[in-house]
Amino acid sequence: MSTPIEDEINKEIAEHKILIYGKGTKTAPQCGFTVETMEFFNKFGHPYELINVLPNPEKREALSKMTNWPTLPKVFINGQFYGDTDVLGPMEEKGELQPLLKAAFSDQAT
Amino acid sequence: MMTFEDLSTQIQQALGDAEVSVLDRTGTMDHFTVKVISDAFEGKNLLDRHRMIYQALDAPMKDGRIHALEIQAKTRTEAQGG
Fold first, then answer.
1. What is the CATH number assigned to the segment(s) B4-80?
2. pTM recorded for the entire structure
């Protein structure tokens, strides 16, 4: 049913409470939007993972298909896709993001 | 290259009543901020609203005329509310 690359993505999404698919690495980000997204999550103090998809166009394409979202970065919180900071910023302003993060990090045991 | 007008026209063709304002973020005419106000967003969450705009701009995003796009999508009521 699902391809190996989709399995890999699903595993990564399940492993990290906050997961950013972006361009570059934490120490060497290669895109302003990826930096913006890292700074956005730095505020909250929760750990996040950044996965660089630049070296892997096939994975980038699979991700775009899975999310029906053409651009990077792509953010997953607790297994759910939330787009990018243009979506997360307004969610934060409306107070919708904080409870989501709280819920994601409250059940560390599971 | 995309002009502001091309960009607005493509969004308006997809979302009939849309009011579109465009900003060039970097002075290079390929990193844009678009603010779109349309009642077509009514009842849709931000993810879906942004998908509608990406879809309208599918061709220029694929061929690289648009490198990056920052999006604000509001309904008329939301835009009036600030």
1. 3.30.300.90
2. 0.91
In chain A, residues with a C-beta closer than 8 Å to the C-beta of B68 are 32-33, 71
Cβ-based contacts under 8 A for chains A and B? 30
B78 interface with A at CB cutoff 8 Å: no
Question: Is B69 in contact with A85 (CB distance < 8 Å)?
Answer: no
Q: Per residue in B44-59, pLDDT tens?
A: 999 999 999 999 999 9
CA distance B54 to chain A (A): 7
- CA dist A79 and A104 (Å) reads 9
If we measure between CA atoms, which residue out of B49, B56, B55 comes closest to residue B72?
Answer: B49
pLDDT in tens, A12-67: 999 999 999 999 999 999 999 999 999 999 999 999 999 999 999 999 999 999 99
CATH code of the domain in which A28 resides:
3.40.30.10
For residue B82, list chain A residues with Cβ-Cβ distance below 8 A: none
Number of domains, chain A: 1
Domain assignments of chain B as residue spans, ordered by start: 4-80
Domain that holds residue A23: 4-106
